[in-house]
Design brief:
It holds the Pfam family Radical_SAM. This protein has 339 residues and is an alpha/beta fold. The protein has nine helices and twelve strands. Bound molecules: iron/sulfur cluster.
Length: 339
């Protein structure tokens, strides 16, 4: 028999409770029959599903119901930003440059810490099943690896792939490796910070600008889609218009221009501060494990887990943490309203 009194009691109590707050309801009132208590619990659960309220917890003799449902932080994200839509892989950490704002402290002396062809291949294969739509390879400088063309092929044969590079090593064997890459499925993203050599070289080293521009021109001539990514210190903000015009002259399409500020990560002495609560995650894999975001792939506070595989579990872990952080932030807002 349906316990109408129980539901009426719940409706009355929720009506006097602010949205988002819980009420505890006695489901064992007037009975010691375990089957009846279970039936009452099932009844409340069914009513919550039908009425847009949330059954938060089932206790031995009571249930806790939230007035309304907590919004799903993942559902509020733009689908393109859903963690796991893009998968970042750090192929290696050593680099021919040692830029003074490198977010992962790369340099010629940095230990390689290569992800390796086998793991990249397995990640790319699992990414397809896990719903990843784009693979992004970064470093360090990926063209230092003797098998970078193999790594890229593992990725681009499965999903659209972007390869980040400083564009300075397209010569000899490395140029041949570039030429073996799939022009239809691969985008090259080359770093360039300014329309003239001085600002770029001030952070990246002598003649870095000249060689990066030559790399961009070569990649375009070879028929690759090329994105340009600039890291712009605050004092260079006034140069953006001239820089954008320069990129247009180089032949870089508007949607292929990425301009970002310096992050206070790695060897950067200043820049934007990030925490897991303030940064929408982008699942990032390195030889050391899974990280919250590629901009913080050596920041212990943004380390997610040691186990890379199965990739689907790593993505689920990042999503679950994101949901938890956002819910905690919402609760904090409830406890400390600002107006
Ligand atoms: S910012 Fe890029 S090019 Fe510069 S040291 Fe770091 S990985 Fe190398």
């Amino acid at each position: 028999m349906v316990n109408h009194a129980l539901i009426l009691d719940l409706v009355e109590r929720l009506a006097g409770t602010p949205v988002g707050q819980p009420v505890e309801l006695d489901v064992a009132a007037g009975t010691s029959d375990a089957d009846e208590v279970a039936a009452n619990t099932d009844l409340v659960a069914a009513w919550c599903r039908a009425s847009g309220n949330e059954l938060m917890e089932v206790r031995p003799a009571s249930v806790v119901v939230r007035h309304g449902r907590r919004r799903d932080p993942l559902a509020s994200l733009d689908p393109e930003l859903l963690p796991g839509t893009r998968l970042w892989m750090y192929t290696n950490f050593d680099c021919n440059l040692h830029c003074d704002y490198c977010c992962v402290a790369s340099s010629p002396q940095t230990e390689r810490r290569a992800l390796g062809a086998d793991r990249v291949d397995r990640l790319a294969a699992e990414a397809v099943d896990a719903g990843v739509r784009e693979l992004i390879l970064t470093g360090g400088e990926p063209f230092l690896l003797p098998d970078i063309d193999v790594l890229v092929a593992s990725c681009s044969e499965r999903l659209p792939t972007t390869l980040l590079t400083n564009g300075m090593l397209f010569r000899g064997e490395r140029l041949e490796r570039l030429r073996r890459m799939d022009r239809d499925r691969l985008t090259l993203q080359i770093s360039l910070d300014s329309a003239t050599p001085e600002p770029h070289d001030a952070h990246r080293g002598p003649r870095a600008w000249e060689r990066a521009v030559a790399g961009i021109r070569l990649a375009l001539d070879e028929g690759f889609d090329v994105k340009v990514a600039a890291t712009l210190p605050a004092e260079q903000a006034h140069e953006i218009d001239g820089f954008v015009e320069f990129l247009g002259d180089l032949g870089i399409r508007p949607e292929h221009r990425v301009i970002r500020a310096i992050a206070h990560q790695g060897v950067a002495e200043e820049g934007i501060e990030f925490t897991a609560a303030s940064l929408v995650p982008e699942v990032t894999v390195t030889a050391d494990g899974v990280w919250w975001h590629p901009v913080a792939a050596i920041d212990d506070s943004l380390f997610v887990r040691r186990e890379i595989f199965p990739l689907a579990d790593a993505i689920a872990d990042v999503r679950e943490r994101f949901t938890r952080y956002r819910e905690a932030a919402d609760q904090a807002a409830e406890w400390f309203p600002c107006s």
